[in-house]
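Morning F.,

Quick status update on the modeling queue. The single chain you submitted on Monday has been processed. Sequence for confirmation:
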Amino acid sequence: MCSVLGLIVCLLLNFRPARAATWYFLRYNAPSGSQFLSFSGTMSIPTLKKAGTYYLWPGLQPTDNSGVYQNVLDGRSGTWWIGSGWCCSNPSLPWGSGFNVNAGDTVTFSNMKGSSNWTSTLKKNSTGEGVSNDFALASKSFNQAIFAIELDGVSWDFGSLTFSNVVITASGADTSWCTKAPENYKSATNYAISGVSVSVNNSVITCRINSVILQSPR
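Structure tokens below.
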């Protein structure tokens, strides 16, 4: 997986596609001096019509632009599979475990910073099946929270991609990154966001979003 997902880094940062990948993503950018501390929510699994290079994911990107930490819904086998990982070097880390999901399932994802690791937890809500993996990324300062669709050789043919009950926490007191509209890469995506609220306690910002829906390409 990492050999393909490694393209994410250069595409997100430099916007110079190295192959025929098509990108749609929304990005929340933390202000200077602030970093994200957790990122959680629920992803609704759309219909997969055929096997293909579909990568749908929430993720975090650090200030040093060295990779992407993500929970990836992967459609290459013809059946959705979801797992977490860091792509792809600096450091080089093994991909986490995961499980298959089907259209109509919902998966809760949680990425939390600890003293030495980030911990990713995924749970299929219909069955309670879940996995948890640690990644040695605590030294990274993540300043970008991303909702992404990456397509290579396939089209956006699966309908909308919905995230609900999203909670993002960050250090600091500047809440503007939460309350203003996210960056919409190349204005490529029709999207809808609802139910945004924010609070600050002990220099930790908690941003809550009822739903983030990537509806269709423009």
